[in-house]
């Protein structure tokens, strides 16, 4: 890995990244969305133990940071779907490496 020219720059970048993906449940929400577009209820079902309030908050945070996109369809009842943006998809390889590291090093 190439070392950054200033530690302050690296620290700031890591701090910003962790502010986006470091909250409880966020990694798992994103990991589920890599499978494809999902509705709120599908995410809640696949993330056993997450409260609707927490899921809603995390989705809102990820949308505000441009990592996911929320699409609301004008139907009755309204249908809302969440999917990855290009910015979010850029994290997929990093997440894969973290999972690989976990499988190899946390046994």
Automatic annotation (TrEMBL):
Gene3D superfamilies noted in UniProt: Winged helix-like DNA-binding domain superfamily/Winged helix DNA-binding domain
PROSITE patterns: HTH_HXLR
Molecular functions (GO terms): DNA binding
One Pfam family here: HxlR
Keyword Acetylation: no
Annotated keywords: DNA-binding, Transcription, Transcription regulation
Membrane spanning stretches: none
InterPro entries named among the record's database cross-references: HTH_HxlR, WH-like_DNA-bd_sf, WH_DNA-bd_sf
Keyword ATP-binding: no
Coiled-coil stretches noted in the UniProt entry, renumbered to this chain: none
Domain HTH hxlR-type: 10-107
PANTHER family: HTH-TYPE TRANSCRIPTIONAL REGULATOR YODB (PTHR33204:SF37), TRANSCRIPTIONAL REGULATOR, MARR FAMILY (PTHR33204)
Name listed for the protein in its UniProt record: Transcriptional regulator, HxlR family
